[in-house]
Each structure stands twice: as structure tokens, then as C-alpha cells.
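*Target chain*
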Amino acid sequence: MLDKEKRIEKAFKLIAKFIDKCNLSETEKRNLKGLLMNIKSRMEEA
């Protein structure tokens, strides 16, 4: 179970890095990261 959590955490960090590197406005980046955090928190609740 711990290995799965580490892989998920690594995936979220990778997605966040990709969002940072994208050619988007700061508002769009903030919105995407907010969505990512919502998904992450919902996964932790389940």
C-alpha cells in the first residue's frame, strides 16, 4: 500500500511540474493546480 501511495504522490508532483512548464497564464496554472489538489484530497478521503 505504501508503494502505491508513493507512486501516486510522484505522479501528482510530475503533473504539477508539467503545469509549471506549460505556456499558460498564472491564473490558468493556479486553477489547474487547484483542480489537482482537489483530486488529491478526494483520493485521500476514499
